[in-house]
Every structure is written in C-alpha cells, then in structure tokens.
User: Fold LysR family transcriptional regulator from Niallia circulans.
Amino acid sequence: MNLHGLRLFYHVASMGSFTKAAEILMISQPAVSSQIKQFEKELGITLFNKNGKRFTLTPFGEAMAQKAELFFAHELQLEQFVQDYKTAKKGRIRITATYLPANFLIPEWAAAFKAENEGVEISITTRNSTDAFQELIHYKADMAMYAGGSEQQMKEIEWRQLFQDEIWFVVSSRHRLANCTVSLEDVMKEPFIMREAGSSTRERLLSLCHTHRVTPPKIALQFTGLNEAIRSVMTGYGVNFVSSLVVKEYVKTGQLARVFVDIAPVKNIIAICTRKGENLPPVVKEFIRLCMESSNHGIVEE
Assistant:
C-alpha cells in the first residue's frame, strides 16, 4: 500500500476538506486531489463521493479513515518509543551488585534516576563478587556494580572506577582491642566474623595475610548478610574487616570501634562494570552517567 497516499487520504478525511489538508501538508490543493485520485486508482476502490463541489466519504472510505486513524496513532507511539529509547526515558536496566553498592549506593542513585525516568524498569540483585561477574558475563545483567580489589578485574569486563574507600578492622567498643594499634599478626589471632566465601572483602582479607606472610584468621562465624555480621561483632565477640562506608556511623556513635593495624591502608575500588566492547543501550549509559556524576559531586564520601 502507498503509505504516502494513505497519509494524504487520512488528512483529507480527518479535516473534511481537501483545501485544509493541503494547508497542513503545505502542498497545493490540486496536488492533493491528484494524488488522492491516484491512491484510489491503486486501491481499485472509491474513497470519496463527489456531489458538485462537495465530497463525502464512501462507506469504505469511512471504514478506511477509522483504520488509518489507528494506524497513524500507532505510528506516533512507535516514534515516541524510539525517541524515549534514545533519550533513556524507556527501557530496562538489570543491575547485579555486590553487597556494599547494593545497600549503600544504588538505592539513592536508582531513586534519583527513576524520578527523572519513570518509564524505565530497574531490577537490582545482590550477589557476592564471583556471582555478580558471572551474571554479567553470561548476559543475565546489563551492568555490575562492584566493591573490592583490582585483582578481580577480568579481561572480558570494562571497569569504570567511581571512587575508593578504606576497609577497616572493627570490634565492639567494649573489646580489648578497641581503638588500639596492633600488628597484623596480632589482630589475625582474634576470631573473625565475616560474610561467606566468595565475598570480595573476605578475599581481600586472605590476600592481605598472604602478602604479609601472616597466618589467616579463624572465621568463627559466617553470615550471608553483612548486617548480621556487624551486629554480631557489636555484641563483643570477634573482629570484622569491612568497608568504612558501612560502619563509619557505628564507629561515630560508639557502637563499634576501630582496631588500627600497622600496615598501609587497605582500600576498596568502587566500580561500574560492563562487558568490554559492548555498545550499551542509551538507558544504561544514562544511569552510568548519573552514578559517575553523583560520586564526583560528593553524594558519597571517599
């Protein structure tokens, strides 16, 4: 079907006038009449009845006009869909994240993004670093947000570093090591309360022991959630090795205390990860842009 002819017909039918349709389309009235006749010829069906200088729609023309109205309404919706996609107003973002960004960074950033892009669907899953990278590599997520060491960087993944934060040794404020400065060897003699094997911070602790040739600590209690591990430490038992972003408020209020260890500060890299070489959808690019701007503008502290 000649879509140009259909468009001309639709405008004439909706305006009830060849002249008004010509004005809207910014072509001459004779050109409209000529092309409508050509369209009728191509269809092999009459669309208009002529009565002197007046034209009325035939029964088929009326039905055709209704169909054309729906057709062009869908065309407008399709154009809007494309425009929304290009401007990140529509779409879906699947985020897999390690515990730290999932609980302390993404909620604020996702809420800010949704406030400006209500039509975007955002799903967030919390995983340990190993599982998060596997989901990204196997296309189960559009991006991963990671907190940990650079040693886990993989060749298939592109990293965008947002900032770094220190990892602290913390105990209950009633613990005998609270606010003390000790050697790494001494603190490792204490029982530790940590998340499960595979978590990036636990791997960093073991790597730290290996680097300094210190015997790794006994993991006395293991939790799948970080909050549970922290609250267990608050009772007075054990040491936790954890991001300062997670515990700084607890330290400030005296519920936890730092143990100062005589080594160089250990830092987490907070990074957004995507598959290397992939052309990201505009909606994902826009979310990454917001996260990077937010971290640069001090929404999070380094």
